[in-house]
Every structure is written in structure tokens, then in C-alpha cells.
Amino acid sequence: MKKNIAYYFILLGVLFNLVACEEEVVPDNSDFEEQYVIESYLENSTEAFPPYLFLTKSIGFYSKIDVSILQKLFVSGADVKITVDNNVYKLDEICLNQLPEEIRKEILVELGLNSDSVQVDLCAYIDINRKIPIAKGKIYELEVVVRKDTIRSTTRIPDLIPLDSIWFDKLPGKPNDTFAQMFARINDIPDQTDYYRFFTAGQDELLIPDNSSVFNDFFFNGQNFKFTIPKARPAGEGFSDTAGYFRKGDTVRVKWCNIDREHFDFWNTLEVSRTRQGPFSSYVRIDGNIQNGLGLFGGQNCETYTILVK
Amino acid sequence: MRFFVVLFFSLFLQLTLFSQKNYTINGYITEKGSGESLIGVNIFLKNNAKIGTVSNTYGFYSLTIPEGNYEIVFSYIGYNNEIIAVQLSSDQTINVSLGSGITLDEIVISSEDVKRNVQSNEMGTQEMNVETVKKLPALFGEVDILKSLQLMPGISSATEGAAGLYVRGGGPDQNLVLLDEAIVYNTGHLLGFFSVFNSDAIKNTKLIKGSMPAEYGGRISSVIDVQMKEGNDENFELEGGIGLISSRLTVQGPIDKGKSSFIVSGRRTYALDLAQPFIKNTDFAGTNYYFYDLNSKVNYRLSSKDRIYLSTYFGRDVFTFNNNERDFSIKLPYGNGTGTLRWNHVLRKNMFSNFSLIYNNYKFSLTADQDAFQVSVRSGIEDFSCKADIDFYPNTNHHIKGGFRYTYHILTPNLVNASNGEVDFSTKLESKYGHENEIYILDDWKIRSNIGVNYGLRVSNFIQVGPYTSGVNNKKYGSGEFVKSYVVPEPRLVFNYGIDDNQSIKGGVNVSAQYIHLVSNSGTTLPTDIWVPSTERVKPQIGTQYSIGYFRNIFDDKIEFSVETYYKDLKNQLDYRESYVEDFSADVEEEFVSGKGRAYGLELFLAKKKGRINGWIGYTLSRTERSYDQIENGRVFPAVYDRPHDASVVLNYEINKKWQISSVFVYATGRNYTPIKSLFIIDSKPNVEYGPRNSARLKDYHRLDFSLIYANNKNKKFNSSWAFSVYNIYNRKNTFFSFTDIDNDVFSGNAQAKQVNVALFTLIPSITWNFNWNSKKI
User: Largest CB tally within 10 Å, which of B166, B369, B378, B414?
Assistant: First the structure.
């Protein structure tokens, strides 16, 4: 009987090998139109970077993205201004290669990048002297003038609802001596919709967002809420049984932020868009908050926690 | 409207003229050997074939003609003709049993059968016989009625291998799918790859893609009317089959011979059941997927005038995933259930009535748990209906039909309950409720021997009722309280002008309304898709279709040809807003945008129904467009259903009594999709910006299938056959879906992006063994 079943599966295996078939294609990309792309954050936290803005251009999808192409993406010579409390602040353009190597590395780490693998001279517009007042409740207006184009956006820094507590517990299912699961608790504020984003880092690792890094408080509005925080999986790391768990004995970090609705919509649509690859999926257009361009101008109120995994 | 008043006035003048010295012959027409009612049998006078009628859905006929002596012919394609001599001096009841032709030579195909396409007052209608379907090549050997309909012009598949239908540019939700009068909301198993209709339990399938008569409503694209078998009332019969992925078994027989019968038919897949011995000792023990269907029906003849039927359907897809290593499990069952109780009553010799009580539902649920965390999601739709229809045959020139249908709808959105071990959470969404009322009258009128018209009026009404909290002004409505009401008059008209006996011109216009909607984000319907009612914010979809066609039979009715054109105007079409992402916390109707659409096309159909070599060629040239003010500023874009060219060639050859071969060739313009326009860098990763909606196309689709059937029929009680089938015999790699592969380490300078097309259904052979046992030697 088992022999018969084995034959059956050999047959099915042969059939399905015949069935699925992949073919790489180079589609028509002739109607590509270049657009400006903004990535800018205003963060209220003790460890925050000064307000900065990357101004790049979109590129055709099917290009091989080598260093020369990447370098040309960065747009120089723009006039970048942020207005808050009726005061206008101009951001300065700076490229990382202009900086001493140690500072360059430090900045790349703060940006969540591996300094050894970055081959491009990243250029950004920064409030180097931290003149822009960063505080919860403030509304910030962005204006970028580049050549004949003007790009605008607005954001707000919401209240921070910090983590009430963080702890570790055993993994669900079979016992595991190596890994632990992270739990946290918050006291959500009632009568308002709160939007959250989180980042995690293992020992000596970069703080990176999870693939689903944003959520709102619809299910637990105004409640004291217990939940798990999964360890973010770096790009290219495959799935495993212990994905999302923290190694015992490591000192790890969690960066916990509150963001506004537009900021949430951007990441929510972007993260879903990245996962929409199946046969029954439809595309999701990323919902940015930039007028006359793509991307995000995002305020966030954050706190970073460092914990030993027990 | 004035037009209809004039028509009805003319009708009653006609009735007066025909009301003297006429007598009525009526009765039921059944299949010899099984007692199954035969639908669409031609009944006509031998010496004047222009005078006749057709049996209705229940096999009932009524022929009112002047006093005299007649030879009456009962003719049905694939069956031997029955000719009965009648001395008509009073009303008579004549029940007739037709025997199917045992050999090819014995089958007499009356030209009246094949002339129906020319002479009837219907257009855009296709009937698909189950025996025809069983001959055709089938994916994985699974015979599928809905997929066979896709081979007709004007009908295409939602995605390759899928049973979902796009009919003349309409979406899958715009088809009214009826199983013994009960609406089937989700017609697919396994993400739509197999239809829920088990061919062994089905007697007849009729698809109306054009001018639907006034008796049908509730959807704006088409009607797929599926009738279940009634059960053999003379002998016990066992029928079944064993295939690569599923098996089927049907039992039928008399309860009270000649008076009452039953049929029970089941089908279940088992591919993953066979894997269980290998899974049970792993961390994934208990993981499984299967689907099943169970059809049953009983009927009882209370008297010569009364008959009752009770038919039910229950089907489920069940997916279970366990990861015992991490104490994680998911259970996901979903499916339809229907139940129909019908009472046929002959009110008068020329008046037939049917009263039905109908229940149907579609339910989806998902439960997942890990450790102390639990999540459950459920959604669905549930209908309670009653309907009545009366057929009135005042004379041979008129068939008047009228009736009503009332339905109470309960539509449940995604209701989520979750627990983290401490607190329970749930969405605050509420089910929605509505009353749908429909009333209609129609007259199928043969004005002259070569001129006919089928005209009617349907008036539909939908009332949204509470409990409901308004999304417009937050007003709370109590249980049963009226929220919003819509009334739509739906005039229907088909005319037929016969140029001669073999050719005619037909045209039609029909308006239809749809109050229950399903908006899908994918190209086909998925089990997770939610049906929503018309509400204060969601207006009913309105479709108006104009069609005209030329129909011709040539070479002594051996060849049937038709060309039809249509134009559809679609109002209040629904889609999701741009950047929509599923959000369990929001009422899904907040995410809809409303727009308009149109579809137009030309359909050519050439069929050979007679002879050992038979088949058909269908070709469609069409366009389907949509536009929404809130999507790309109202740009008109091709709908996902848009297939400019669609062709199919079906060929059957009966080599001898034991062997027959069939082939199917299908060609269609590639499916459209929204292309990626550019890449942009955010968070050090490349992200995609999409171009205009549906502005690119996959490569053209085509494939060739073959099937070979060996039947060992020796006129014994037990017969069996083998069906060998090869899908996509030349191994065409038709793209099923595309995905993009982007290297995330972009600042390393070595990143590149690729698009990969995936072909899912390349060459697939299959084999199925079918058998039939009958307690009486045929």
C-alpha cells in the first residue's frame, strides 16, 4: 500500500515539476517619467537625528542599479525649507563623503545601513545645527524648490504613548533554550486613534523596522494592552522556526514611535505593496504625503529601549 | 412604457380570437428509464411544425389547439422522437417518455431542435448538456460545467484554470448563478480552480448572456441556471468516478416506483489525505486541505397535478495548518449551502404554477491560535426567499409567465474576534439587512409565423433595514427600520424576424439592476471577498444591454451559424479606492468608489451538432472599459475583464461505439495588468511606483487540449469508461501571474530588479475511471 502511495507521489511530483514554470522577462519601460522622491523625518526623542531629507529621483524599473546610477539619483542644489511656528528654517546639503570616516559610519548606522556595504556617497539636506524646534503637537510644513519644481508637504508630531513594560517569555510550543519571545504592554489613550511604528535590533545589530512595522489601536483603543514584538527580519534573511524571536543573553533594542495618520498610511501601503506578489494579489499604490512627488515627510515621537534577553 | 401597454392590449385581442373550440393537451415529458424531467423538448404538429410549444423547466408542456385529429411530435436532441396520434375533442393529459438513442444511427435529430436557434424568441442563450461536457478535455480530469461554458463566445475565464466567468465584459459577481433556484454566491473550490457543481448531480445548465427574460433578475451580466437531477424513479443506479485528485459517487433510485425518487451525490478531493501517513509524525501533523460537495434531492408526485421537490447542496473547502513546534494552528473552512422546497401545481390544463421556499448561504471563517493568542474572522451572506411563478399557455402563440420573488438578505462583514489571553477584542462592525422584492410579467408571443417577440417588465425593489448606524450622519436605525429604498423598473424585450425558415434577425434590449455586490481586488473571486448590499451610500448597479444578431442554419440544418453584437451601458460600478489596503476595522463600503462602464463586442458562432464529427467554433471581438472620478481623475481604462480577442474551437469525433476523441483549442488576448512604472528609494530599499491602471498586457494566451474516452458499454448493468485527458498538449507557457524580484541591498551598487512570469498550467495529463451500475439492464 505504502509503495503504491509512494508511486502516487512520484507521479504527482513529476506532474508538478512539469506544471510550474518561471520565465524572466524585460517588459516595456518606455513611458517612464522621472519624479522627485522625498524621504524626510522629524523625530522627537532623546536619541533623534537632526531633521534630514533625502531628495532623489525615481528611475526606470528594469535598470541594473549600479553605483553610477545610484549616485545620479541624489538631487543637488535644491532649496529645502521647513516652516514651524511661522518660522522658516533652511536645511543644508551635505554628502557623507565630505565627513570624517567615523562620523560617516555613525550616520550610516543611525540610518540603519551597513557602512561596509554602502558604496554610494549619500547626500542629504540636514538641519545640522538643530535649529528646528522639535516637539509633540507641532505642525511642520515642507517646501522644496528644485529647478522649476516646487514640492510641498505637511506633517505633525503626535503624542508619544510609551511602552509600559517589556519582558521576555518562553516560545510557544516545544521548549527552546536558545530563544525567547518579547512581550510588551502599553496604556493606549482612549477616544483618539493612535498610530504606532516599531523597530528592533539584536545584539550589535542595526535598528530596522519589521516587514509589518505599523499598526493602529482599533482593537485596543483606550486599553492596557499586552502584545508580542517580533524581531525584525533583515532583508535577504530566510524564514526559520525561530524567526521573530530574540536570542537569550543578547542585549537588544526596541525603538517605539507614534506617528500621524498620513505617516501610517504611507508605511502601511508601502509594506503591503512589497508583499503583493502572489497570483491572486492586486497592486497597491503607495500612499505618500508629498505634493508633486513621491515619498514621505514624516513626524514621529519615539523612545528607544535597551533590554537584556532572559 | 407606452410600447408595453400597446403590446398587452394586442395580446388580449389575440386571446379573444383564440378562445373558441380549442382544447388543451398537457402533461410531463420524462426520460425513459430514469423518469427525469426533460427541459426544452419541442412539441409540435407533424403536419405543421410551426404550431407547437416547448416543455418548461419541470418538463411540463401545454398545447392548446383547435378540435381535430393530429399527430403530435415530441422531439428532443439526442433522443428518439415520439409521435402520438390524438383525436382532440376534449382536453387531454398525455405524459410522454423519450428514450435516448442507443446508437448513433438511432438518434433522430429533428430539424425543429436545431432550428430553435433561428426561430425562438431568445438570443444570447447557451445550453450546455452534461453529456457534452463529459466528453471535453478537463484540467486534472475534473469535469466542470462552468469551464465548458467558457468555450462559448462572449464568455471568458476569470484566470487560467478558474471556473469564474466573465460574461460580455461583466465581473464574476454580476452573474446570477442558480442551483435549483437557489443563489450560489461562491462558485469555486480551491481559490476558484474547480466549480462547486458536481457534473454527476447536474441535469441541465443554461446560460443567458444577452437579453435575459423578465423572470430573471438581481444581476446585470448573465444568468447561469443549473438544474439538479431528480433521481431515477424506475431503477436504482450507482454512478461514480475515480480521478487523480478527487472521486465521486452518486446513488439514485425510486422511493415509491413511478411516484417518488431520490438522488444523493458526493464528491471529495483526497490529494493531501494520501499524504497524511507522511505528515503525521512531523510537526505539521494534522495539516490538510480538501473540498467536498454533497447534493441531494427527493421528489414526490402527490397527484397528477401536484409534485414536490426538496433539493439541497452543501459544500466546503477545509484548510487546516498546524505547526506543533510553535503551537500554531489555522483552520479555514468556507463554502455554500442551499435548500429549495418546490411545489409544482397544474392550476388548469394550460396553467402551471411553481411555488418555492429557498434558503442559501455562503460562509467563511478562519480561526488561528498560538499559545494564549487567538483570532477568529467570519463573514458571509444568508438569504431566505420565497417565490412563485405561473406559466400560462392560452394558445400556441403565447406563453405568458408572471411571478414574484422576495428575499431577506443578511450580510455579515468581516467580524473579527481576538484575544491575547487577558482581554477579548472585536470589531464593532454590524451585519447588514435588506429586503429584495421582485415582480415580473412576460409574454413570449409568436405574432406571425415568422415574427415573434418576448417582452416583459420586471420591477425590483431593495429596502435596506436596520439595525444600522448611518455612515453619513451617524443616525441609529432600529431592527427592521427602513434606511434606504430603491425601485428600478426593468423592461425586457427580444424580437425575432424570420427571413425564411433557416435565417432570422433578432434584437433585444434589457435593463437590469443589482443590489448585492462583491468587489474583488483580484482578477477572480476569492473566498475572502465580501458581499455587500446596496445602502444609503452604495447605489444599485444598473446595466442596460442592447443586442442584435443574425442567425442562420445551412446545409440542411447541419451547420448552425450566428453573429451577435452587443453594447452594454453600466452605471454605479464599484471598485476599491486607490491605495486601498484591507482594514478589518473599517466598513468596507467606506473604501468603495463608484463609477461607470461600458462593454461592446461582436460574437461569431459556428456549430455542427449532427454527425459523428461535431463541435463548434466561437470568436469574440470585444472591449470593456471602466472609469471612476476618484481613480486617475476619471481616466477611462480597460477593465480587468477586457479581452479584445477570444476564440475557441471544439471538435468531437466518435470513432466507434467504444472510442471517442475530443479536442479544444483556446486563444485569447493576454490579460491586462497594471505595470510597474518606476523604482524609487525609501528606507534604503527600492520600492515600486505603478503606472496607469490595466495599461499593460500579458502575452497572448493559447493552448490545445485533447481527451480520449474508452467506454466499455456492453448493454450490461455495469458499464465503465476511461477518460484520458491532456491539458495544454504543446506545453505553452501561458503566464498565470508575474512577480518582481528586487535586490534590497541597493546601496551596495549591485542591485537589480527583475520581472518574472510564472506559468502554472503547462502540460498536464490526467486519467479518470468512471462507472455506472443500473439495477435494470438498459
Answer: B166
B689 close to A (CB below 8 A): yes
Residue B740 and residue A198: Cα distance in Å, rounded?
A: 27
pLDDT in tens, B53-94: 989 989 999 999 998 899 999 988 778 888 999 998 899 999
Q: Are residues A258 and A205 in the same domain?
A: yes
Residues 426-485 (B) with a CB less than 8 A from some CB of A? 426-427
Chain B, 227 to 246: residues with Cβ < 8 Å from chain A are: 244
A59 has a chain B CB within 8 A of its CB: yes
Q: Which residue of A has its CA nearest to B327?
A: A173
Residue range B403-418, pLDDT digits in tens = 999 999 999 998 888 8
B680 to A37: CB separation less than 8 angstroms, yes or no:
yes
Residues B186 and B334 in one domain: no
Instruction: Please give the full DSSP string across chain A, using - where no structure is assigned.
Output: -HHHHHHHHHHHHHHHHHH-EEEEE----TT----EEEEEEEEESTTPPPPEEEEEE-EETTSEEEHHHHHHHBPPS-EEEEEETTEEEEPEEEEGGGS-HHHHHHHHHHTT--TTT--S--EEEE-TT--S---TT-EEEEEEEETTEEEEEEEE------EEEEEEEPPSSS--SSEEEEEEEEEPPTTS--EEEEEEE-TT---EEEEEEEEESGGGTTSEEEEEEPPPPPTTPPP-TTTT-EETT-EEEEEEEEE-HHHHHHHHHHHHHHH--STT----------BTSEEEEEEEEEEEEEEE--
Please report the residues numbered 116 through 145 in chain A whose beta carbons come closer than 8 angstroms to any beta carbon of chain B: 117-120, 122
Find residues 718-737 of chain B whose CB sits inside 8 Å of chain A: 731, 733, 735-737
DSSP characters for B386-419?
Answer: EEEEEEEEEETTEEEEEEEEEEEEEEEEEEEEEE
Q: Of A121, A156, A191, which residue sits at a domain end?
A: A156
Residue B116 lies in a domain: no
In a domain, A279, yes or no: yes
- The last residue of one of the domains, among A110, A140, A156, is A156
- By Cβ distance, the residue of A18, A33, A281 closest to B763 is A18
Measured between CB atoms, does B19 come within 8 Å of chain A? Answer: no
Q: Find the CATH number of the domain harbouring B449.
A: 2.40.170.20
**A22 part of a folded domain:** no
Q: pLDDT tens digits for A183-213?
A: 999 999 998 999 999 999 999 888 999 989 9
Note whether residue A57 is domain-resident. yes
User: B609 and B749 in one domain?
Assistant: yes
For residue B190, give the CATH number of its domain: 2.170.130.10
Are A147 and A230 members of one domain?
A: no
Domain of A170, in residue numbers: 163-288+300-308
Interface residue B761 vs chain A (CB under 8 A): yes
- Which of A117, A173, A273 is facing B326, going by the closest CB pair? A173
B600 and B547 in a single domain? The answer is yes
* Average pLDDT over chain A, rounded to an integer: 87
Q: Is residue B580 part of a domain?
A: yes
Please tell me whether residues A123 and A47 are part of one structural domain: yes
Give the B window 536-575 contacts with A, CB below 8 Å. Answer: none
Number of domains in chain B: 3
Is the same domain home to B538 and B593? yes
Contact A61 B688 (CB under 8 A): yes
In the 3-class helix/strand/coil scheme, how is B6-42 assigned residue by residue? HHHHHHHHHHHHCCCCEEEEEEEEEECCCCCECCCCE
- CB contact, 8 Å: A1 with chain B? no
Whether A7 contacts chain B with CB within 8 A: no
In the DSSP assignment, the letter for residue B523 is: S
Q: pLDDT digit string (tens) for B307-341?
A: 999 999 999 999 999 988 888 899 999 999 999 99
